[in-house]
Amino acid sequence: MKLFPQSLRWTLQLWHGLLLFLVVTGLLAAFYSVEREQAWIRLDRQLQRWSPRISDAFHQQRARAFNSSPDSWKTNWLQELDLQADLAPFFEPEGDTKAYYAIWDPRGNILTFSASAPFPIPFPRRDRSSSRFRTRDNHREFHHILPEGTTVLVGLPLAPHETRFQSLGLKLIGIGTSVLALSLLGGWWIISRSLRPIAHISSTAQAISQGKLQERIPIKVTESELGQLSQTLNDTFRQLENAFAQQVRFTGDASHELRTPISIIRSKTQLTLSRDRSVAEYREALELCQRNAERMGDLVESLLELARIDSGEARITPTNFDLIQVAKAARELVLPLANESEIKIQLPQGSCAVLGVPGWTQQVISNLLINAIRYCPGSHSITMTLEENKATAALHVVDAGPGIPPEDLEHIFERFFRVDKARARNQGGSGLGLAICKALMEAQNGAIKAKSEWGKGSQFTLRLPLCDPPREEKTTS
Ligand code: ADP
Fold this sequence. Notes:
Number of helices: 10
Mean pLDDT: 88
Number of domains: 3
Strand content: 15-25%
Number of strands: 12
Largest sheet: 5 strands, antiparallel
Shape: rod-shaped
Strand order of the largest sheet: 2-1-5-4-3
Bound molecules: adenosine-5'-diphosphate
């Protein structure tokens, strides 16, 4: 068993409770001890105030006894003191305070004491100081030695005082417990409220891991830290869902694309083998199978290439190269096809040094040229132009073909997207050419975009960073 709870809620509550207990107990204990000390001081001051008044009453009473009977005053006057009206109630044996006094002659013989005095009262120890406090048998006493040697002692029982402090202690324990309980409840509520988004995050992540990819974390407060985290996680979940959907679509499209040539081959071979055929018929059947096998081969090649780019396996370090030279090489590659369709391909002049992968760029340009030849029947020329700005170079491949419908333009770089499916398939297209171009451009820090005017032609633009210009060496003249 673990000593501390693993749950965040309980850990926070435990620390919060512990700190709160220490603070509340510390504060109440400090209050109790200050209050007790103050009460002692008040008690001692009271005894100090009463002491001279008791001495005065003693002197007056002794003087009266002496004046009335000078011969026998020593024995006659020994009786309780006649205290002033405001003082007397404190010294009543039945009163609340139950204060008492006792007076001794210099030899330690008791002269007088109050009826409330708790006898026996030991004669106070006499030392150099003429007045002193002492605590004895739950009584607080103050004695004072008068100049002629008489000792006057005033005392108070501590029992009522202690009872008061016991009840104060109990009250403080009650207050402390209530404050602690309320704060713990409040803390529990605040912690539960603050941790609620974490519970939502966890249940959403659990649902997503079980395949409910459309689940999202409900967010009430977007400004809080957990709100921001939930927002970020929701964005990630959205991207995951999109990627997953794309993956599913891609797999479906790929199998569909492969299924078509396979079923053509299957049905053609079945049909051809169902009876004896002439050589020409066998040839025609074999040629159809070959075309479809080639189509499947191209498709698999394209899929493998995309997979390689996606996984980063095909990553190559970019180098500096001349974009115009690469465009020229791409044109050489597609020239037989262009000649067949009597299309002229115009190139920009000069040179332009860019940073990228020349092999990939050449593949992208030839792909764009093949598309322009393939999808633009009746067009007579394809023009390549160059545009440079501070940081990048853009190569435009412009044709005067039929163009791309505006609603399709944003999809043409998607995998397996074709504007006219049947026609494109007949022309050998798999809908992966532009997707591969985009992946290749992005893998070399470049970009590819398309613009088109329906019925007037299209413009594909590939953009690459210009290579760093050589630093000018400083010359001194
Ligand atoms: P495919 O391999 O089928 O040619 P791409 O990804 O290269 O696929 O092209 C996607 C679609 O974009 C094509 O089916 C075609 O309809 C359209 N397209 C591409 N280039 C052009 C162009 N220059 N003019 C008109 N349509 C084009």
